[in-house]
Design a protein that fits this description.
The complex is a heterodimer. Chain A contains eleven helices and six strands. By secondary structure, chain A is α+β, with helices and mostly antiparallel strands. Chain A has a six-stranded antiparallel sheet with strand order 1-2-3-6-5-4, sandwiched between helices. Helix content of chain B is 68%, strand content 0%. Chain B has helices at residues 3-12, 17-28, 31-47, 60-74, 90-96, 112-124, 128-139, 144-151, 155-189. In chain B, helix 4 (60-74) runs parallel beside helix 8 (144-151), helix 7 (128-139) crosses helix 9 (155-189) and helix 8 (144-151) crosses helix 9. Chain B is globular. The N and C termini of chain B lie far apart (68 Å). Classes of the chains: A alpha+beta, B mainly alpha. At the A-B interface, helix 1, helix 2, helix 4, helix 5 and helix 8 of A face helix 1, helix 2, helix 3, helix 5 and helix 6 of B.
């Protein structure tokens, strides 16, 4: 590949819009060409400076409160209620009051009959609604991990998952990837051979668009069952904090997204500035057990760095 | 909208307030206008939230699309208005690309106040289409296809607009770095 050919794809390459195979061809040219390498560096600096400049601006005080005030329903319903009182006459108000009184009497009757009570309060109803929402939120976040895992399994089948220039040995690959990605992420890739999973390949693949920064992805394969396991080390996944807050490798977050025909589970936890994600077609309790065992054997790798 | 739906809105949509505000600020260059843009964006998003379907990558691209619509509606411009010079081919770009002679070294320290002001001016000198594409690219963390979906144009148009916008900003950075080099040289001479 010459400079002209490389430069046609230079921006797409610098922006991470190129598939892994083409990426490798472009990387080969980049290693040899100082000029093209300078242009790529300059483009990445440009983006970094633009982002840094934008991050310096703070959200004006009160903007969030103004938006919340504009969208919250209580204010709207009070306004409606006030409107209703002014539009309809006193007779209508009396009818509504009588109706409300009937509801109170019926409810009181049911209370004493034991059909409703503390065990069946409205608060419990809300808790059910909240749990339903939480699972929807967890589905959204964790499904993206499963989607990425499946994409990378396909790449492994085509033997294009391994990042060019990385060693095929797990421990060396960890060291080489750590050097390439810097200190933003504490990269880990445990030895899972005791669970039947052998290290297969390593690449830089992000499981979600709302994870900012470089991500290390290690793939393992279980030859006996023909299944694969993904281990991601990603910069702190802030967008999933609602799920992962307080979750450590001793008590990780475990989830099996709905509509997942291969029953792939995701186990996740935070450690310092890094979020670790594991995805495999394994029952989530068993996967948690695996995580606990290998994470405990990895204190020097995972927890002591922070 | 129900409590549950409002809570979902807060967790899935309102959490993107910071990035939407920063994009709006870079798009229009003025705090007050950016605040208005953001408020209108979130109110529109709230009104149509019931029609929004959860997707793998969350609400951000959807929210950015609304910001795009509000931005263009306010400028009374058609979002799909064709612009000249959007027909650059990859060959044209490849032939035109050269590394800049002067380039800022981040490790060397940046005078941020000066840089922010220069960047604001450079952005405002770009036409809205170019300004928007660079904001979506740098801050939106969107793929070229997603940027094309937001802007309602072809992916090739995104790439050529992005190229022109980047070239303009690269000129700014190169001038900025050259000024700094001259300042350092004159300091050394003294």
């Amino acid at each position: 590949m010459n400079c002209h050919q490389f430069r046609k794809y230079l921006f797409a390459f610098a922006d991470g819009q190129i598939d892994i195979k083409s990426n490798c061809d472009l990387l080969d040219h980049l290693k040899m060409c100082e000029n093209c390498s300078r242009i790529v560096d300059q483009q990445q600096t440009l983006k970094a400076l633009f982002v840094a400049s934008a991050m310096r601006s703070r959200i004006p005080a009160g903007l969030e409160a103004r938006i919340r005030a504009a969208i919250e329903p209580p204010a709207k319903s009070k306004k409606k209620a006030a409107g209703a009182l002014s539009v309809f006459g006193g007779r209508r108000v009396l009818r509504m009051t009588a109706l409300a009184a009937c509801v109170v009497i019926v409810f009181t009757g049911l209370w004493f009959a034991g059909l409703v009570g503390p065990g069946a309060s409205l608060r419990d109803g809300r808790a059910v609604a909240s749990a339903a929402y939480d699972s929807e939120y967890a589905d959204l976040k964790m499904r993206s991990v499963v989607v990425q895992h499946n994409k990378c399994v396909e790449r492994c089948n085509e033997q294009i998952h391994q990042l060019s220039g990385l060693s095929g040995d797990r421990e060396t690959a960890v060291r080489e990837l750590s050097e390439r990605l810097g200190e933003q992420v504490a990269i880990a890739a445990p030895d899972l051979s005791g669970f039947g999973y052998e290290f297969e390949s390593a690449a830089v693949c992000s499981p979600s668009r709302d994870i900012h920064g470089a991500t290390a992805h290690f793939m393992y394969v279980n030859h006996a069952y023909g299944t694969r396991l993904s281990f991601f080390s990603v910069p702190h996944w802030i967008a999933a904090d609602a799920l992962l807050e307080g979750k450590t490798f001793r008590d990780p977050f475990a989830y099996t997204p709905a509509g997942n025909c291969q029953s792939q589970s995701v186990v996740a936890w935070n450690s310092g500035t890094t979020t670790y994600l594991v995805c495999a077609p394994i029952n989530q309790e068993d996967l948690v057990q695996m995580i606990r065992e290998f994470a405990i054997s990895l204190p020097g790798e995972v927890s002591s760095r922070h | 909208m129900s409590d549950k739906s409002n809570r979902r809105f807060e967790q899935e949509v309102l959490c993107h307030l910071d990035i939407v505000y920063r994009m709006a600020l870079k798009l229009c260059g003025r705090n007050a206008e950016a605040e208005d843009l953001v408020q209108e964006t979130f109110l529109r998003a709230h009104r149509s939230f019931s029609k929004f379907e959860l997707r793998d990558y969350g609400a951000k691209p959807w929210l950015i699309k609304i910001l795009h619509n509000v931005f263009y509606t306010r400028r009374e411009r058609a979002a799909r208005a064709p612009t000249l010079f959007d027909d650059l081919s990859l060959d044209d770009i490849a032939a035109d690309l050269q590394p800049a002679a002067d380039w800022p070294d981040i490790a060397d320290g940046v005078d941020w106040d000066h840089f922010d002001e220069e960047l604001r001016r450079a952005l405002l000198s770009l036409s809205p289409e170019y300004r928007e594409v660079i904001v979506l690219w740098a801050l939106g963390d969107l793929s070229y296809q997603e940027i094309a979906d937001v802007m309602g144009c072809a992916i090739g148009t995104v790439m050529s607009r992005l190229y022109r916008a980047r070239r303009k900003l690269a000129e700014l950075l190169s001038d900025f770095a050259a000024d700094r080099r001259l300042e350092r040289e004159s300091d050394t001479e003294r």
